[in-house]
Amino acid sequence: MKTIWLRLSPFYKNVVFGLFIGVLLIGLRDGQWVAGIEELSVDWMMTFYRAAPPSNDTPPFVILDIDNETYQDWGKPLFIPGDKLLALLKFAVKGKPKLIIVDIAFNKQPSPNGLDPDEQALLHFFANYETNHCSQSDCPTIILARAFRLPQAVNTFDSNTKPYYPEQPATFLDKIVMRSTHLEWAATLELSQDRLLRRFSLWTTTCTKGAPDVVPSMPLLTAALLVEDKPNTLPCSCRLRYHLAYFMPVDCQKGPQNWTREELQHKPTEFAASKEVVFHLQPTHLSRRIFYTIPWKKWPFLYDGRALLTIMSAKKMVDKPMSQKPLRDSITLIGSSYVESRNWYTTPLGQMPGTLVLVNSIHSLRQYGVLNAPSPWMVLLVITLLVVLTSWLLVKFGQQRGTIYSALMIIALIPVSLVLFKYGIWLSFVMPWAAIQLRQRVDF
Q: How far apart, in whole angstroms, are the C-alpha atoms of residue 206 and residue 150?
């Protein structure tokens, strides 16, 4: 073997060594080092699409924002006052949006003394929502933020704590939401290990008093609800529930377990909300990425002249009547951005309130679909072509000029990745770049 290696020309040595590194990097694709660099490269790629013009079928977004001014005017309450939230809900429903998302957790426990007047008014609104608003015409589905809590026996500071499922705390709306076809619970956001909010979760599995459940995420549920159902077919949201039931916790006592390959063979691998949006139910770290394009301070316009994002202060809506025209056929979100809400997150585009993160996650799914990586064979083909070409350049032009030409080839991959990004395909230039750089450190 050593004799064969010594007989090889520098060109073939470069090719063999470069391909070896390429195959090694593909094998380590999900490793911390390669995945970390790929995360940063996707973050960098997003800056090119910041405030990019949306497609023609993109619905506008409206945020009814409980901002700092509103929070001060309402007397800095510990919880959002029920009468104020009810006023925002009524305002949103009258605007006739496609969908209403309430990004305010209903985590206040039912009182032994019964509901206070504000809670009773909210209960009455939701209990009679379909009767009052859905009997004569179509009404928007209202998605409510589901809060979670740790099981009572769990101590997160104990290193010997066994895996566990979170619980769903009881609320005064549980029975109403369970019976309604226009009220839904959904999970909100998920932080990365570096405290950056890069991806959305597909669902959250829970066990409450021994009862297993699966709560879909807001982006996943929104994508399903916005699909126009065809006649004589099962509604998309019902199909979603059917698919998620396969991932229901089997044993609440054992806690979350990794599914075996044999178990996964009997579970669905994807859920098609539409032809453009297909969710992988056994997702990779890349397929759940939020493609941030809407920053907090600046946003583009739609083809009909409407703003892609309209932010309306909750104080102004509660104090005096306002036009509900911007809400028509929009995705309307009720949320908070005041500092004390602790609803701010660090994203690749900077600090954002959680409501705007939801806007970005929903918009990215409708605009670009789920982000997918090419197959390992495609990546290996790209690496092979680049390594062969780089090896030829090094032999032809020498180490210094060959290195410059190699760098130019990697730069040429960037616009290719930009184009593919629009179609939900991420052709990472990280592995070809790393393979070439590591190969060039060994001078044959």
A: 10
Distance CA 266, CA 260 (A): 10
How do residues 222-256 score in pLDDT, each as one tens digit? Answer: 888 888 766 666 677 788 888 888 888 888 877 77
Q: What residue has token string 């589901």?
A: 146
For residue 227, CA distances in Å to 56, 201, 337 come to 16, 20, 29
Please state, in angstroms and rounded to a whole number, the distance separating the CA atoms of residues 163 and 5: 51
252: helix, strand or coil = coil
pLDDT tens-digit map of 135-173: 666 789 999 999 888 887 776 666 667 778 888 888 888
The three-state (H, E, C) secondary structure of 53-114, written as one string: CCCCCCCCEEEEEECHHHHHHCCCCCCCCHHHHHHHHHHHHHCCCCEEEECCCCCCCCCCCC
* DSSP element (H, E) containing 93: helix 82-94
Position 375: which residue type? S
**Residues for the chain: how many in total?**
444
